[in-house]
Known about the structure:
The chain has helices at residues 3-7, 57-68, 73-84, 100-105, 121-127, 164-170, 188-192, 203-211, 231-239, 251-254, and strands at 20-23, 26-28, 34-36, 42-44, 90-94, 113-118, 134-138, 152-158, 171-182, 215-229, 259-272.
Amino acid sequence: MSLQTLSEWLRxxxxxxxxxxxxxxxxxxxxxxxxxVNKRGFVNLLTGPRKFIGDSAAMLDARDRFLDAGWYExxxxxxxxxxxxxxxRRILDVGCxxxxxxxxxxxxxxxxxxxxxxxSPNAVGxxxxxxxxxxxxxxxxxxxxxxxxGGVDVIMNxxxxxxxxxxxxxxQAGGLLVVVVPQPAHLRELRxxxxxxxxxxxxxxxxxxxxxxxxxxxxxxQLDRSVLLSPSEVASLIGMGPSSHHSGSAPDxxxxxxxxxxxAFDIFGFRRR
Length: 273
């Protein structure tokens, strides 16, 4: 992608005016605010203090190892199918991680563009290398998003926080929000070992209620399967997500043999009201 294509997604995080190229590796607005673009091709538009930190390089390495083994390919396939049904030209992935889902969801066509957004610069850097038509943005989902109004056809939100009002603003009229959350049974065997954090029992209902003012539920897919994981794969699975911050012992020291683990997800399609 180019400085021009990157700028066309964005507005200034300070005054909300559109950003445009203002020189080599520089974006700016008409009020004189300017922002350096990383040489790897993404821009950091974080402003003010933050309560959270992005995924570390170690977490992203663990995610690459686990996802490259193909355990979540069925989930990736469902996301790809749901997104393809929209024939989108502009796709935003909020909480893009390593780009595993976004890279698969971008359909063919030179006029199709995507933006990977994450709080972690390490994550955004990996995502923009997953596809040659993906731009990168470092931003905080809890703040007003540095995105122009109505410029997105589909927002993907896979295991990531949500900002319903800002998603509504960024989507075009009738746009689609694709949200993936774990089911209560997800990783239950690892929770029993104290290796995974507890799940919110009514997570799907809470999600639907929290989005109701801005979106209506249009589709719901469920995926529930057992996978046989080696100790090293269990370690990668735990190490790639929030459980890595809470586990009291190294996963590969607690799991000494192959173990059957439940992976279970809800995949929702919400239509912008």
